[in-house]
Fold this sequence. Notes:
Elements: E1 4-6, E2 14-16, H1 17-22, E3 49-59, E4 62-73, E5 81-83, H2 85-90, E6 94-96, E7 101-106, E8 109-114, H3 117-134, E9 146-147
Parallel strand pairs: 1-5, 2-4
Antiparallel strand pairs: 1-9, 2-5, 3-4, 6-7, 7-8
Amino acid sequence: MGKIFIDNGSSVIVLFKSTLDQMKMEGFEFEPISTPLYGFEGHAIPPLGQIVLPLSLGTDPRRVTKMIAFTVVDNPSTYNGILGQPALKDFRVVASTYHHKLKFLVGKGVGVLCGNQKVARRCYERILKEGKKRGREHSHGSLSSVLQL
């Protein structure tokens, strides 16, 4: 999965429905969630529900996999998902926006994920372009916060 927004200010882990559709996952049911999400564009977005999926960070031999509860929303986004505080805590991530990297513990070692500056710039430009079309400013995005997972 690519284009994951790392948001250490978010209290949720989001997977966009379009990403789930692209994964061609069938035969699962969402656990209901009644609390709407705020912050995407300043209005409430009702989640479709929650789904637990495995998420891996890193590459072998420095890979770690955990079962993560994703909140699924049907909302357009330039990203496939958003990793918020709960996932960053579960993976024990240290993020450096300056270095465009995430570091995390893997056994007795350290795994590293490097951001992709070109992908980040394209996402950011698309957010700005779509915001202008809708007559709104962009609500989330950072050149240094998009990673290819």
